[in-house]
Amino acid sequence: MQARMLQQHAYIAGVGMTAFARHAGRGLKSLGAEALRLALADAGLEPQSVQAAYLANAAAPLVTGQSAVGGQVLLRELGIGGIAVVNVENADAGGATAFHQACAMVSAGYYDVVLACAYEKLHQADAARADAALGNALDVERADELQQLLRQKLRDAGLPSSGSCRLDLLGVWAWRHMHAHGTTREQLAQVVVKNAQHAMANPYAALRERVHADALLAAPLLTGPLGAGMCAPLVDGAAAAVVVSPRKLRELGLRRAVRVRASVLASGWETQDEDDIHAAEQVAQRAYTKAEIGPQDLHCIELHDPSAACEILYYEHLGLCAPGEGGELLDSGATRLGGRLPVNPSGGLLRRGHAGAASGMAQIAELVWQLRGEAGARQVQKARLALAHSGGGVVGREVAAIVINILESA
């Protein structure tokens, strides 16, 4: 199809998602196909309507052995072939990246109907493979050097190392924020308590029970100042979205579609100055500028919280508060359901569970339900503008991939 280069808005016509859990006896194709069928049914479209597809996965080559053509293999389960299929690998940000690419192709006028899907199977007989697969999202030639540096930093602070580079990064980031800004372990525990309360109303969440701050604080430290309950559990799952053009939206007569106001993808970067602006801050500003809004205009947010400390840190990076004031914003109640700007109404990675590349796509599904008023007991009242923030991998001191999507009820 010849490009029309219209720079039009892309719309989300439908979304679908599996439960995030340990799906014993189910494989990648089963999970991905479920999410895709649900998304197509939600949009009222048949598989034959799809013109292109972007499918994301992070861990399959190491965990299940499926590599290279996973997207084509999955789509055959739905009888879809003969279209453009792109397999996306971008660490934990893979799902958000697939969505970004789908939106870009629709906005440019290349296609009218594009699928975006992310799917992960992290639990097999060898549980260590999942951590290794996600933990390899760094410069592997310098992995030993990084691990030694992290262990030394934690040792100097009198804090434990988990032995996992992926987790120890989270521990060091948590310690740095606490050391620089006075954030407390009590505040870290309250992030988990908040997200647990949200997840209790989410049928897709892996962890739906209530938790108490005292229990979290009494648990043994896992890495740095983080206890086990302060890091996101790894789970299996899949989520998908159907992205359509304005022309297709009119043809379908959809009244529940969600407009994509901005979609920005960038790689992290760094300088020698640790006080420089973080990459996520600059990517967020680009997204706000493109959407012609500011953080004060948002009604709800789904952000990347592989640890409790990351949620507080990203409050600041997304401009929800000034640097160092993330703990105070949490204490104010603003980020709880019923507050001024609920964050992670799904329960976030901490309680919905972390399914690698699928986590970012799950954010999109959650926000579509929020903007359509279909989120049930976790509904954010009068939600019209929402932001999804996804990060993946690490190079040096910075997150390797950052995606920020701003969505609006149409």
From TrEMBL:
<dbReference type="InterPro" id="IPR055140">
    <property type="entry name" value="Thiolase_C_2"/>
</dbReference>
<feature type="domain" description="Thiolase C-terminal">
    <location>
        <begin position="277"/>
        <end position="403"/>
    </location>
</feature>
<dbReference type="GO" id="GO:0003988">
    <property type="term" value="F:acetyl-CoA C-acyltransferase activity"/>
</dbReference>
<dbReference type="InterPro" id="IPR016039">
    <property type="entry name" value="Thiolase-like"/>
</dbReference>
<feature type="domain" description="Thiolase N-terminal">
    <location>
        <begin position="11"/>
        <end position="206"/>
    </location>
</feature>
<keyword id="KW-0808">Transferase</keyword>
<dbReference type="Pfam" id="PF22691">
    <property type="entry name" value="Thiolase_C_1"/>
</dbReference>
<dbReference type="Pfam" id="PF00108">
    <property type="entry name" value="Thiolase_N"/>
</dbReference>
<dbReference type="InterPro" id="IPR002155">
    <property type="entry name" value="Thiolase"/>
</dbReference>
<dbReference type="InterPro" id="IPR020616">
    <property type="entry name" value="Thiolase_N"/>
</dbReference>
<protein>
    <submittedName>
        <fullName>Acetyl-CoA acetyltransferase</fullName>
    </submittedName>
</protein>
